[in-house]
């Protein structure tokens, strides 16, 4: 029997050529598909504009694919089907999300720094309050320095930077800020620096830029440093009396934390900071005074009102006259139009109304040292009835009353707190903190005392408690 012959073998070169031709044809088809015009081409830029607008809006108030299709038809007379728009929008959103989730590993040169604010609680003059701390981090060495302030305005930012520049003996070559916090205002894509910060940057000669909104990855180093500073230097809650003096000590404490190995470079952070220090610009020979000057007008009593609700005494002779106000991080200077210094006051922060002649600053100290009550400014500022009532209290009760006055004044203003305590003594014969706080808040809001349209009928309660023998109504 003759074995059937095997099919002729394909020549290797023939297979290779056929595969090559198929691949080539596929590439041609794909290229042709990519080059083929789409019915959406005239509208792709418009769709991109809608998606850019969505990126700046609340996530619950963005375009759906259906809404984009409707706008193309209604506003641009587009002859395109919904499915075509829906598939394109879905693809573009996926591409945008992928690009957004891809972050570059940023490289920071020696002498460059990031700046941000954090918040922490501090006990100042025996009272716990939320303060802000400016943090300057050098990503190259991972050394971070902090300064504590009552606010985040331009005066606080520039004073904190000045303190840090003086401590390290030089000026960073570039500073990156968190979305213009405290030093400017962002309007769309444009950031306008404040007048004080603009002068400050020109004087010290550093470059500066601002992060994009909601772009924490652009300043991850300083955000980590803000958290580390809070955990390691502000726990337990610091007790301080003079914030400016505390800031001097805080710089040494921050630098002391650099005596450890860098998390990635295998060298001491303090040693790496030497390279940062070499790259710093020299401090200018001329000093810089961190103060912003603004014209203001005194009221009929000779007071200037700043930041909406804080009143500072100038002089009665300056009533209804123009003055110049110098704002610093911790104080306010008032000058005549000729430049003569009239008064200097501690700068007030917060939403509660305040006045420079309120004995509130002494009240904080008095709460810690109640033995100074007899000759204190607080005692002499109170109405006669309230002063006599507090004179008759024992030391413990007076201390409680002073703390009530202090805390209520912080929330509602000193005058409202004093009036509320006096009313509470008249009505109840004692200082009841909840009642004082409610009455002071009501007075500060302008609503006046709490009144009711109809008198309360307590006859039913009188009858019940009278039968029980625990209460006897007293008829007037």
Automatic annotation (TrEMBL):
Residues 106-277 form the Integrase catalytic domain. Residues 18-27 have a biased composition (Basic residues). Transmembrane segments: none annotated. Residues 1-34 are annotated as: Disordered. Residues 1-10 have a biased composition (Pro residues). Belongs to the transposase IS21/IS408/IS1162 family. This is IS21 family transposase. It comes from Adlercreutzia shanghongiae.
């Amino acid at each position: 029997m003759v074995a059937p012959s095997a099919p002729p073998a394909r020549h290797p070169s023939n297979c290779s050529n056929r595969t090559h031709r198929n691949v080539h044809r596929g590439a041609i088809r794909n290229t042709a598909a990519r080059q083929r015009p789409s019915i959406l081409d005239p509208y792709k830029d418009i769709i991109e504009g809608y998606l850019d607008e969505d990126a700046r809006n609340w996530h619950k108030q963005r375009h759906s694919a259906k809404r984009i299709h409707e706008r193309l038809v209604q506003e641009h007379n587009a002859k395109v089907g919904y499915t075509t728009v829906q598939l394109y929008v879905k693809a573009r959103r996926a591409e945008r999300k992928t690009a957004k989730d891809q972050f570059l590993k940023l490289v920071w040169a020696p002498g460059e720094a990031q700046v941000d604010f954090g918040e922490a609680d501090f006990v100042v003059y025996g009272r716990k309050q939320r303060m802000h701390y400016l943090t300057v981090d050098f990503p190259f060495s991972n050394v971070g320095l902090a300064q504590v302030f009552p606010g985040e305005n331009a005066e606080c930012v520039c004073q904190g930077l000045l303190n840090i520049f003086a401590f390290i003996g030089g000026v960073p070559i570039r500073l990156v800020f968190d979305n213009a916090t405290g030093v400017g205002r962002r309007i769309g894509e444009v950031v306008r620096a404040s007048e004080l910060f603009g002068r400050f940057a020109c004087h010290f000669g550093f470059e500066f830029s601002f992060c994009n909104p909601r772009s924490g990855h652009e300043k991850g180093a300083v955000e980590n440093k803000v958290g580390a500073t809070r955990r390691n230097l502000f726990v337990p809650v610091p007790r301080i009396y003079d914030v400016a003096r505390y800031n001097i000590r805080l710089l040494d404490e921050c630098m002391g934390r650099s005596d450890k190995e860098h998390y990635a470079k295998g060298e001491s952070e303090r040693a790496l900071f030497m390279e940062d220090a070499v790259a710093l610009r020299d401090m200018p020979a001329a000093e810089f005074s961190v103060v912003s000057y603004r014209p203001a007008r005194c009221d009929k009593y000779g007071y200037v009102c700043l930041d909406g609700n804080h009143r500072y005494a100038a002089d009665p002779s300056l009533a209804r006259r123009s003055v110049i106000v110098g704002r610093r991080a911790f104080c306010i200077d008032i000058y005549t139009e000729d430049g003569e210094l009239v008064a200097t006051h501690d700068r007030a922060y917060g939403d509660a109304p305040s006045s420079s002649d309120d004995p509130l600053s002494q009240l904080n100290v008095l709460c810690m040292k109640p033995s100074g009550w007899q000759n204190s400014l607080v005692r002499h500022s109170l109405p006669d009835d309230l002063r006599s009532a507090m004179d008759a209290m024992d030391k413990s009760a007076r201390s409680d009353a002073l703390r009530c006055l202090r805390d209520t004044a912080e929330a509602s203003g000193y005058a409202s707190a004093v009036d509320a305590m006096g009313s509470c003594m008249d009505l109840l014969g004692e200082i009841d903190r909840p009642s004082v706080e409610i009455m002071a808040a009501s007075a500060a809001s302008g609503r006046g005392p709490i009144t009711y349209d109809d008198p309360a009928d307590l006859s039913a309660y009188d009858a019940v408690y009278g039968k029980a023998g625990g209460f006897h109504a007293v008829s007037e």
